[in-house]
Amino acid sequence: MLAPVDKKEHKSEGASARPKHEVADIFRRYGADYRSGHKLSPKQHQVMFDIEHCRRSYFGYHIDICDACDYVDQSHNSCRNRHCPKCQGIARRIWVNARLKDLLPIPYYHVVFTLPHLLNPLVGWNRELIYNLLFDCAAETLLQFGRDPKWLGAQIGFYGILHSWGGKLWQHLHLHFIVSGGGLTEDNRWVEAKHKGKFIFPVAALSKVFRGKFVEGLKHAYLKGLLVLPNGLKHLSDRNRFEEWVNALVARNWVVFSKPPFKTPQKVVRYIGRYTHKVAISNRRIISIDKGIVRFAYKDYKDRGRIKECKLRAPEFIRRFLMHVLPNGFHRIRHYGLFANGKSKANAAQIREALGSENEVVPIRKDQLTEDHTGIRCPVCKKGRLIPIMVIHRVGLVVINVLYYNRLSWDTA
Fold this sequence. Notes:
The protein has twelve helices and 16 strands. The protein is an alpha+beta fold and 413 residues long.
């Protein structure tokens, strides 16, 4: 059942208030029953366990001291699982700060590639294959358009972030890319995007090429016997039936979306920072957990982005959440072209030289940087930062920050 939700009510707690309900609460109440009746992968078991025990005694604790007023705070450690809604803030802040410091004085564009939902039944059985194919085909499409003199004629740079969910936790595979608004030619000249101020490349042309590359890659995987077919698609083991299914897939709408460039480089990093370390649902979206029913808010993009409410039975909520557990070792943030890992620093210097701004950097004010892992504001004086001085891990390991450790006043009476 769906019903409109009052936006003011949904935001009333404020950005700094602690959510009343958490995914961890759902797992603690209903997780044991769900695990006893469903077959989970070892990774899914680990995700549930970590989230249930996050910031509880199992993972140990740490002691922080304020660098201004010497207030001492003791808290349980987080699980640091990348699927945990409570553990992504620190990683996101570190990532955003690193990107802010690497910004170039160029425009940046936001481009999104989306897979048709007809592929969803295959994804659960071929996650790593489909995810990698999506990354490879979307990235190669952008690089190809950049190399083509018709569109640019230069090497571009970009990074992408994978999201596998929609607002109601259904499978919705898409990639968010941040793309440089131009590129370097073979003779190291900087070339600006031809459609400056509108879009990096025409989305209809991008969609057509992306679709062709993905379908070709999917057929290759099928012929090599790499695709696992679930029971509902066993008929696709017949080559002719598979070709018919592919034809239906090609006829679907392959959505590629491109936004105009952001007003400033800082704004693009701030914007994409919302996506980098997201999990399927944040704790703040959960409205209530009662009598086996989970109510949570979501944004309905088909209805002008209105905030609405979705109700799910706890087992269905857990099932949908676990659909988005990533394969072991999978990298959901990837860098390409000029921004590729290991080459980005040298390429940035070359771009600045080509722009005639070898020593120019995008100015970053101190207030534009987000608080890093040592920068949590003191709840007492509101001025200082809480600095970790001692971390006690669950295995008994103790890590001490000697610089601040001696500032503590120990009571030995």
